[in-house]
Amino acid sequence: MKSGFVSVVGRPNVGKSTLVNALVGSKVTITSPRPQTTRNTVRGIVDADGLQVVLVDTPGLHRPRTALGERLNRLVEGSLAEADAVLFVIDATQKIGPGDRLIAERLGAAGAATVVVSNKIDAAGVDQITEQLAEAGEWDFAAYIPISALEGENLAPILSELAVLLPEGPEYFPPGTTTDQPEELLFAELIREKFLARLRDELPHSLAVVIEDTEEQPNGVLRISARLIVERDSQKGIVIGKDGALIREAGTEARHEIETLLGTRVFLDLRARVEKDWQQRPGMIERLGL
Ligand SMILES: Nc1nc2c(ncn2[C@@H]2O[C@H](COP(=O)(O)OP(=O)(O)OP(=O)(O)O)[C@@H](O)[C@H]2O)c(=O)[nH]1
Ligand SMILES: [Mg+2]
What is 2-165's CATH superfamily? Predict the structure, then answer.
């Protein structure tokens, strides 16, 4: 069979995680309208006829301003080093910019087997799409595919291309596996997603979620204790919201999603804690499991 690791890279917010979920066919990685949503390399597995693709979702490549930012970029480099092929995602609704060109240069220099995916065509004009593909075409990669990850449009050609590019290899994961992500990490990510959808400005970057404990109770309910970690006292007030409204609303939504995922009832014990400027502190970033 053909198989291999495929690193999904691109600037922040171009739709890498949405694409990974669409190809896997279930939610293995969180998405949001805010840049720098993805903070880990999350693997999603796709099984097709005689083909197993291990997609590696990565944080968006950007100019780092914090210890966390630097760590995210290093994660992408690491993922590229072990990749058999690359999906390079660009945003069809935006002109190709310096960030895209930098990534293209690096991939070109590394000689990576690369498929360029122009995403969000549902929100772009035909002229815009044609123009972008023509410009990207000068990069000399293996293929250029216009898609909409959100609407699941034109995704099959991506797998056909990968079937050509990937080497003969083993089945890395048992068929039917969708991710190698530990359940607790996915819970934490789902919780963070519900807050990202409700927070503005810089706060999303300052938020981390840690699962402290999970315990099945005698009545069959799974109790999950999670902590929202923020950087300042003022941010703690924001994530809790007026009279606790925000933490309640986001918590309920996360709980429902986890319950659907597990098929059991969940009690989510959610509290906020301040860790001063954790984004700037490498030791703290590690302790938060990032
Ligand atoms: N219109 C449209 N929006 C999309 C499409 N794909 C993703 N989006 C939206 O773009 C935003 C970013 O999507 P993500 O999948 O989180 O992007 P990402 O590249 O993983 O972002 P980072 O992890 O922050 O680097 C979200 O609001 C998505 O709903 C698409 O095909 N069409
Ligand atoms: Mg992402």
Answer: P-loop containing nucleotide triphosphate hydrolases (3.40.50.300)
